[in-house]
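Colleagues,

For the teaching module next term, I've prepared a clean inverse folding example: a structure given as tokens, and then the sequence designed for it. I'd like students to try predicting residues themselves before seeing the answer, so please don't circulate the second half yet.
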């Protein structure tokens, strides 16, 4: 996903919004076209990624950032959120740089205050299953949509449930997770940054206030991109920047939040030793180790764009620590990895927003790459498998999750779709998805995260 950041790298000043400026510019172009009469169509650990694969307050002054939207042809459907103003810019054809561009201005709707509601603490590590429902967070629609389990073929189906509307506190919604009890967590990159939490088992269309919101200056949230919840209910957030300075952070919060909480994290991973580089995704393995997809994490001259860094389980306090493992380099096939998931065997899946052609091209389709389990040290390794090509339906692959059987679910921010692939891929596969959720009935416009429960 080209970039979802609010401000240029290295800047301490607040910015307009989100991961992908290019996506926002594209959406502007389409929105203008709609005004002329054109219609649009409209991450569960360890098997969860960008998504694995969750603020109410007065109207924010910042502008939400769009996730990487590399495909100029994606046509957003009618929006429930304000339409950005400004003149659309041409999509760049040159090699993407590692410095995000500011997003266009955006006028948010007023946010509601949160309603505190007690909920049970998860008792087990959330795992996704082939029989579980599919939760999709959509940045353009500012919504969470829920779809039936086990899709096959191309499905233009209405969601079973939608969380959408001015009371929800969704604002620049990017990442999603579902805990063992079914509570839904969303990372919102709209200012003020927040994590919003919703009651389990939604049905129908729900314009409901969150049961909990984590937001405020004490939280150290700084452009939260993705979220994951562990078996004890602790909440891990990937932030594209670090409030103390630097190129990103992982912040961890206590389980079972209620009401509106301006609380300090119980742990923070940040600093120059961490090798974090604009983290876009976070996941946990069965032992609790923390895996981070860094969209701009390659050392100079290493080749490729991005990296995966791995940290010890159960961090506490503030840790400027070196990763226990780093996957980085020209052999990896990384090209802006944002989504990440870990399967039951410990294998590592990455969703690359811009394809897998390193610094030599700008492939808007994207790819999924797979790596061996239990990495240690620094590894410039080739993927065990790559899903890429014109048949795959990938288009700005951003969010990712796995079900219990190992099937791969990808949120395509530029493709207005969620695509599903078979378990345990090997080699290089230009394969048609087993299923695609897309079309005007789905209300999917710019999906940025996916989870299963």
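(Answer key — instructors only)
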């Amino acid at each position: 996903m080209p970039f979802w950041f609010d401000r240029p790298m290295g800047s301490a000043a607040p910015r307009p919004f989100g991961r992908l400026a290019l996506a926002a510019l594209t959406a502007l172009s389409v929105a203008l076209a709609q005004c002329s009469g054109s219609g649009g169509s409209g991450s569960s650990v360890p098997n969860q990624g960008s998504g694995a694969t969750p603020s109410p307050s007065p109207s924010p002054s910042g502008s939400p950032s769009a996730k990487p939207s590399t495909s100029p042809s994606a046509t957003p459907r009618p929006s429930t959120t304000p339409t950005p103003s400004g003149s659309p810019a041409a999509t760049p054809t040159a090699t993407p740089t590692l410095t995000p561009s500011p997003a266009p201005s955006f006028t948010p709707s007023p946010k509601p205050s949160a309603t505190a509601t007690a909920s049970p603490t998860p008792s087990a590590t959330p795992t996704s299953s082939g029989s579980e429902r599919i939760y999709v967070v959509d940045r353009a629609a500012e919504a969470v949509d829920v779809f039936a389990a086990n899709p096959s073929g191309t499905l233009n189906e209405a969601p079973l449930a939608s969380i959408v509307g001015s009371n929800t506190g969704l604002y620049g919604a990017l990442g999603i997770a579902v805990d063992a009890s079914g509570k839904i967590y969303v990372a919102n990159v709209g200012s003020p940054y927040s994590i919003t939490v919703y009651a389990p088992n939604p049905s129908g269309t729900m314009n409901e206030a969150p049961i909990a919101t984590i937001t405020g200056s004490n939280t150290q949230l700084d452009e939260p991109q993705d979220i994951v919840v562990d078996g004890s209910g602790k909440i891990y957030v990937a932030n594209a920047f670090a409030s103390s300075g630097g190129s990103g952070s992982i912040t961890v919060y206590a389980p079972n939040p209620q009401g509106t909480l301006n609380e300090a994290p119980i742990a923070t991973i940040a600093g120059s030793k961490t090798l974090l580089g604009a983290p876009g995704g976070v996941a946990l393995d069965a032992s609790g180790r923390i895996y981070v997809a860094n969209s701009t994490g390659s050392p100079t001259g290493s080749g490729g764009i991005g990296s995966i860094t791995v940290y010890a389980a159960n961090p506490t306090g503030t840790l400027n620590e070196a990763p226990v493992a780093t996957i980085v380099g020209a052999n990896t096939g990384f090209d802006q990895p944002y989504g990440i998931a870990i399967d039951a065997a410990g294998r590592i899946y990455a969703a690359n927003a811009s394809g897998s052609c390193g610094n030599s091209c700008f492939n808007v389709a994207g790819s999924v790459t797979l790596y061996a389990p239990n990495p240690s040290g620094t590894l410039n390794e080739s993927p065990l498998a790559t899903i890429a090509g014109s048949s795959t339906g990938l288009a700005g692959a951003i969010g990712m999750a796995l079900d219990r059987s190992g099937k791969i679910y990808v949120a395509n921010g530029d493709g207005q779709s969620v695509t599903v692939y078979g378990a345990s891929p090997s080699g290089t596969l230009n394969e048609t998805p087993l299923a695609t959720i897309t079309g005007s009935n789905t209300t999917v416009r710019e999906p940025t995260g996916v989870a299963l429960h």
